[in-house]
Amino acid sequence: MDKSRKGSCYKVGRDRLMVDIDYIMNLIDWEKSPEDQRAGIELAKQVECINVFLRPCSKKYNKNVWENCAVILADREDSQLLPYLIELFSWLQDLNWPGALCVYERLAQFTDSSSFEHAVSICVKYARAIEDVNWLNTLKALQSQRSSLTR
After folding, report:
1. Which residues of 9-31 are buried (b: 16+ CB within 10 A; e: fewer)?
2. Cβ 120 vs Cβ 150: under 8 Å
């Protein structure tokens, strides 16, 4: 295994490149240049464990990376998003949060109706329990939009 270092990227084997998540997160910060952000989004395509892009909340990486995290996640296949549907629906609690509209649009295109409805029903119950009317309305609007697209 060749681990020759180039920046924060490591060559692993013949066709694989391992990229440091902190390096990607640094690039996708909204304070970075558009070129850096695009480079970070491109590098993120190689990341297999996408949970790191689900609204990170560390001291250094939080709302400053959410918009680009949403773009990264929106580019993934349904099968990759499936384990994280509830977390993605939770992102819609406040449509003013960076990336929320991008996630909303991606979820509207989700093709597995059964999994979609199951995750929405869990989030609707939670939204009712915490009396979050805005989130509840967003979830219902998404369901309505999605059902009109699938007809």
Report:
1. bbeeeeeeeebebeebbbbbeee
2. no
CB 84 within 8 A of CB 50: yes
What pLDDT, on the 0 to 100 scale, is given for residue 55?
97
Q: Give pLDDT, residue 124.
A: 98
15-24, Cβ contacts within 8 angstroms, sequence gap of 24 or more: 17/46, 19/43, 19/46, 19/47, 21/47, 21/52
d(CA 85, CA 108): 12
SS3 string, 84-96, reads HHHHHHHHHHCCC
**What DSSP designation does 9 have?**
E
What is the per-residue DSSP string for 100-146? HHHHHHHHHT---HHHHHHHHHHHHHHHHHTT-HHHHHHHHHHHHHH
pLDDT class for 4, splitting at 50, 70, 90?
Answer: very low
Is residue 96 within 8 Å of 63, Cβ to Cβ? Answer: no
Write out pLDDT tens, residues 41-60: 999 999 999 999 999 999 99
pLDDT digits 0-9 by tens, 74-110: 999 999 999 999 999 999 999 999 999 999 999 999 9
